[in-house]
Write a structure and sequence with these properties.
Rossmann fold; seven-stranded parallel beta sheet; four-stranded antiparallel beta sheet; 58% helix; elongated
């Protein structure tokens, strides 16, 4: 009797962050040591074959295509500083110029001008017939083709740190290659000497023209100087200058004295005029008064007064009284005479003072005229001195110009003589033949130390490239490095292939049957990070999903259940693979009742769970009755209820589902479980499949914890093989200290 299903609210999906931007795909990383170990026998065979190919290549080239090399060496010199001296090529600016010169000459050797001179040499066809034969067209030699050929074959290089330029060429006929190099050497030296001669002729002509121009300039300057001497009477120029200078000095001294006198007269005149215009009357000078006192007119008037006073005195002595008419009259005459004398004195002072002022004015005018005349004469003398000085300056300038022209002409003449001397030297072109070419007596190519490594590297390189491309294009997951190439994908652990472990018999129960085996240790190593991440997320239900059939997800579930159960944890294994259920067969349980019956509400979870057969084994919820296996129920709310109830009863619930590439059951359950891991079979699934399914699991409700690589072989990882051997040897040494 079945129980009607009860509707239960579904678990809300846990909030998840939005999809992150897709990172750029990681660049495949190949371990060279791993590849070498994997293909060491292939590389060994390739090495032997490569040595054989190198020997065969050497013998074939030596017989059918030998190369003889002829070499000519040129010695370079520094610039010729004089006919007997060459500029050094030590370090510094001189060395830099010398290196540029050598590099330029190495390019000149292969220039079209030199090559054209070479191919147009009539001796070429006669002395190098085999070499020229390859450039025949319609039975005639083609110089253009020969130019292209020699340009590619000829080598010219400046030897660093030396004074040598090396020119060489390789070809299969020893006589022809020596003739070609000799004709090229002669063509280069001929062209170089022609260029140097042309340049030297132009330089000498330029210097000669400079000398002629300087001679004309010298004649013109000397003629100008002669004309100046003639026109300016240069023979008496110094005497005229001295005379003018002396006269000018005297005039300056005279002018100074005249200015002093003029200033004195001006002051005196101003004082006289001030006295003359004074409102209180003129205060005449004492010397003027002295002159008036001795004036004859004044003397006559004073004599008349004195006579009157004598007469008055005689009358008084004769007894005339003061009131006598004669006395009174005489006294009146004496007073009138005194007034007349005083008036006469003032008149004479005024006249004499006016005469003095007039004389002073005339003296001032005379001094001013004299000063003006002196200044005029001084200006004339100054102008004459300037003219004389100008003539002297012109003569001196002309003398300096004549000296400069003579010095320049001497320098140009020395340069011309030096150029003429350099032209007669063998080193005029700065390049001479140091060592001529000779007919080579040994082949330059092939040489065994080149062809043998060449053949070896050719074969081994091709094989290595094949190995590299083969590994690069192989998208299968082989080990941790392949998982690391997938962006943001965590590797939880690796499980070795049971074929690598002699103690592992049954891969589904190896942890129970062979607890000391290598595979069992791998499950213990996987359990630690898995338990940590489950605990950090407080997860109880774990979905284990494989990529393709045969990935080993079921064996991962069973062995993990043994690993957790052995640690005294309550573990439930749910077989959700309705298509090919296998858990009940592996653990020796009944196929029904199971999960399909619980989802169909035919059984409760407690009724459907089968307890472990032994202590330390997990409980099992098998797939259930076949007619109740409805795939859609795996993603329904009933499945969420089952997982929730199982999580409350057990410490860990492991869910096995069908492979992801054959059904969507696993992705449906991933939206109901707490966490999920993805199992990949080594050398089976490809990285693209892993990346796609990882992204799909990451977008589900369950937290994607990482990838487990199952069935890893010792040849798939560089250190994995050593770890497996160390684990196996350690476990076999019973009683050894840890």
């Amino acid at each position: 009797m079945s129980t009607a299903p009860t509707t239960r609210p579904s678990l809300p999906p846990a909030p998840r962050p939005g999809p992150a931007p897709a990172p750029a795909p990681a660049t495949p990383s190949l371990d060279p040591i791993k590849l070498f170990r994997k293909y060491q026998w292939v590389l060994a065979i390739a090495s032997v074959v490569g040595i054989g190919v190198g020997i065969a290549l050497h013998v074939g080239l030596l017989r059918y295509y030998p190369t003889f090399r002829a070499t000519a060496t040129f010695l370079c010199y520094g610039p010729q500083t004089s006919a007997g001296q060459i500029q050094g090529t030590e370090q510094g600016a001189n060395r830099d110029e010398f290196d540029r010169f050598m590099a330029t000459q190495a390019l000149v050797i292969k220039s079209d001008t030199v090559l054209r001179r070479f191919v147009e040499d009539p001796r070429l066809e006669r002395e190098a017939p085999k070499w020229t034969k390859q450039y025949y067209e319609n039975g005639r030699f083609n110089p253009s083709l020969a130019m292209e050929g020699i340009k590619d074959a000829l080598k010219a290089r400046a030897i660093a740190g030396s004074q040598f330029i090396e020119m060489s060429m390789g070809w299969r006929d020893r006589n022809d290659v020596a003739a070609v190099v000799r004709l090229m050497r002669e063509a280069y030296l001929g062209q170089l000497n022609a260029q140097v001669g042309s340049a030297s002729s132009k330089q000498k002509e330029s210097v000669s023209q400079t000398i002629r121009d300087l001679n004309r300039d010298l004649e013109r300057l000397q003629s100008t100087k002669k004309q100046l001497i003639t026109d300016g009477r240069m023979d008496s120029l110094d005497q005229r200058y001295n005379e003018a200078q002396s006269a000018l000095t005297q005039l300056k001294e005279k002018s100074v004295q005249v200015r002093l006198d003029l200033e004195s007269v001006r002051v005196t005149l101003e004082n006289y005029e001030a006295e003359l215009n004074s409102p209180s009357g003129a205060n005449y000078p004492d010397e003027l008064r002295s002159q008036i006192d001795v004036d004859p007119v004044m003397n006559g008037a004073r004599n008349a007064l004195s006579s009157m006073e004598s007469t008055l005195k005689s009358l008084q002595q004769s007894g005339f009284g003061p009131q006598h008419r004669e006395i009174v009259l005489l006294r009146a005459q004496i007073d009138g005479q005194k007034a007349q004398i005083e008036q006469l004195k003032q008149q004479l002072l005024a006249d004499r003072f006016a005469a003095v002022i007039d004389g002073t004015r005339k003296a001032k005018a005379g001094l001013e005229a004299q000063l003006l005349d002196s200044e005029t004469q001084a200006q004339q003398l100054q102008t004459r001195l300037v003219e004389i000085t100008g003539l002297q300056t012109q003569i001196k300038d002309l003398d300096q110009q004549i000296e400069q022209v003579i010095a320049s002409r001497s320098t140009a003449q020395d340069t011309l003589n030096n150029l003429q001397g350099i032209d007669r030297l063998d080193t005029a072109a700065r390049v001479v033949t140091y060592q001529t070419e000779s007919v080579p007596d040994q082949v330059a190519f092939p040489v065994i130390y080149i062809t043998l490594p060449l053949g070896y590297m050719l074969v081994v390189g091709l094989v290595g490239a094949w190995i590299f491309l083969r590994e690069l294009l192989d998208q299968r997951v082989k080990g941790p490095a392949d998982i690391a190439m997938i962006p943001r994908t965590r590797l939880l652990g690796m499980i070795a292939s049971t074929s690598e472990d002699p103690d592992a018999k049954s891969p589904e129960t190896v942890f129970r049957d062979a607890p000391t085996s290598i595979v069992s240790e791998n499950f213990r190593q996987l359990k630690s990070p898995l338990a940590k991440r489950m605990s950090n997320g407080s997860h109880k239900t774990l979905l284990v999903i494989g990529g393709m059939p045969g990935s080993g997800a079921t064996s991962i579930v069973t062995n993990l259940s043994f690993a957790y159960a052995s640690a005294e944890q309550r573990v439930l294994v749910i077989d959700a693979n309705f298509r090919r259920p296998a858990i009940h067969k592996i653990l020796g349980m009944n196929e029904a009742p199971g999960l399909s019956d619980v989802l169909a509400r035919a059984k409760s979870l407690g009724e459907a769970i089968q307890p472990g057969r032994k202590p330390g084994e997990p409980d099992v919820l098998a797939a259930g009755t076949a007619q109740h296996r409805v795939f859609e129920r795996l993603g329904a709310n009933a499945m969420a209820d089952v997982l929730k109830e199982a999580g409350e009863r057990y410490d860990l619930v492991l869910i096995d589902v069908a492979p992801a590439v054959v059904s969507g059951d696993g992705l449906a359950i991933a939206n109901r479980a707490d966490a999920s891991i993805f199992v990949v079979r080594a050398l089976s699934e490809k990285r693209g499949l892993v990346a796609r399914l990882k992204n799909e699991l990451s977008e589900s409700r369950a937290e994607f914890l990482g990838v487990v690589i199952n069935g890893v072989r010792s040849s798939a990882g560089g250190y994995f093989k050593k770890n497996m051997r160390a684990t196996q040897e350690y476990n076999r040494r019973e009683g050894a200290p840890a």
